[in-house]
Amino acid sequence: MRAPRPVRPVPALAAILLAAALALTGCSGSNSDSGGGTTADKAARSDGKAAAPGGERNASGAGAKRAPKLTASSIIRTASLTVQVKDVPKALDEARTTTENAGGYVGDETTSRDEKGHERTRVVLRVPVDRYDEVLAGLQGAGRLLDRTAKAEDVTDQVVDVDSRLRSQRASVARVRELMDRAGKLSDVVALEGELSNREADLEALLAQQASLKDRTSLATITLSLSETPVKAAAKDESPGFLDALAGGWGAFVTMLRWLAVAFGAVLPFAAVAALLALVWLRLVRPRLPHRPALESSAAPANGKNEE
Question: Are the C-beta atoms of residues 76 and 155 closer than 8 Å to each other?
Answer without folding.
Answer: yes
